[in-house]
Specification:
6 strands; about 30% strand; alpha+beta
Length: about 160
């Protein structure tokens, strides 16, 4: 079984306002007042300023997108997250912008590497967005990011 997520995550209302002029933006509520916006092909095309994917070490992060996220973060913290797994083995990347600047530098855990004591990159980013966990759960499961196995399923 595979799991694949490439998405922007932020406060639901803030993200709705920030993306109102981005016709390719599709938002899905994930709980704790947050929304997830999958990085679909249409969105990738709509927000790309330069060449295609791969900026900042992410798989689906177009050149110049950090400027867009920095602008959106004037209204509150905005995370960009990626997770890719197959058979329980995989990798994660995440970064957070807040108040127009990079607040959490891109974090990356490669295949086979253990998560640091602070938690997975995605969980660390979600914590910066204010996600609260319960007993025996991390931020990833607290907002239900395990509900869908692929990015597009969030908005289909």
């Amino acid at each position: 079984m595979s799991y694949n997520l490439q998405a922007v995550i932020a406060d639901e209302e803030m993200l709705r306002v920030a993306t109102r002029d981005v016709s390719a933006a599709r938002l899905a509520s994930i709980g704790q007042g947050l929304s997830l916006m999958p990085m679909t092909d249409a969105l990738l095309e709509a927000v790309a300023e330069g060449s295609g994917d791969g900026a900042w070490g992410f798989q689906r992060f177009p050149e110049g997108f950090e400027k867009v996220l920095a602008g959106w973060s004037a209204g509150g913290p905005v995370a960009y997250v990626e997770a890719e797994y197959f058979g329980g083995i995989g990798e994660q990347r995440a970064a957070v912008w807040d108040a127009g600047t990079l607040a959490l530098a891109p974090l990356h855990v490669d295949e086979g590497e253990p998560f640091p004591p602070a938690g997975s990159p995605v969980s660390q980013a979600l914590r910066r967005l204010g996600v609260v966990t319960g007993a025996a759960e991390d931020e990833f499961s607290a907002v239900g990011l395990d509900r869908h196995r692929h990015s597009e399923a969030w908005v289909s």
